[in-house]
């Protein structure tokens, strides 16, 4: 995987080419001060939320000698001009959007949203997801990490906020397709952690529909000959392009391995057309890979300031020398990087 291939998979590069075959979207340049805010490792305070006003709580439940603990929330930065553009774009797309950056969506952070969804109605919804997502941090800091041409200079990237019109997509209708030398070699069920009976029953129709979509609209029209694209097949049998990704380990190979995909050997094992893999029974259902990104709800309340009482209890705990083995006259963190992962 070359750096040029990563650049070519940016949303603003491929969207104009395949605009007729994908979901309506708007692209906004991301100002540098917004990028700095998203990368700030401080306490998670979401711009535009109701947590911008100072709050003070006094704890009187202890003895007279106990000092009152005051908790004040931070002030989130404001971006009036950018906020106005985002709200205008959201309204133009029907009031509900799916947000992403040049490459990634914050799929690893949907657990932190009130509706456990990536559906956003405001800029504060977007910021909450973006600041909680390792995928977004990767886009902003290490987009070329796994490229083979590390000795070459990194291409300049103009970061963008992509807002896609919200659509209720059934996970069982999503598929990931792998293309090598402009040939469709493999198709994988996107949500491989679940068993969908209709995929088993409609395997020939699904595979045929995706192959026809590829040959008619995608093949030879993209800038690279090796790439990965995601599609959605709706209830009417129509196929829609959802995303394009680099052909390499930075992209999840799902039910295949990258060794298989890059070996040059026949994956389909003699069958005509691409190899098609999907979860064949409930016995093979697996936990979602995004579960590893979740943290306890108490941590979320602390980071967002939702529950000041939990923060007070936490401060009492860490201020007690007997409560931690890391106290020796000064406070020492066991891992200075564990407090925030962006």
TrEMBL record:
GO MF annotation list: ATP binding; metal ion binding
Family: Belongs to the CDC123 family.
Keywords: ATP-binding, Chaperone, Cytoplasm, Magnesium, Metal-binding, Nucleotide-binding
Assigned GO CC terms: cytoplasm
Any Pfam family the entry gives: D123
Subcellular location: Cytoplasm
Presence of the UniProt keyword Metal-binding in the record: yes
Function text: ATP-dependent protein-folding chaperone for the eIF2 complex. Binds to the gamma subunit of the eIF2 complex which allows the subunit to assemble with the alpha and beta subunits.
Protein name as it appears in the record: Translation initiation factor eIF2 assembly protein
InterPro entries in alphabetical order: CDC123
Chief location bin: cytoplasm
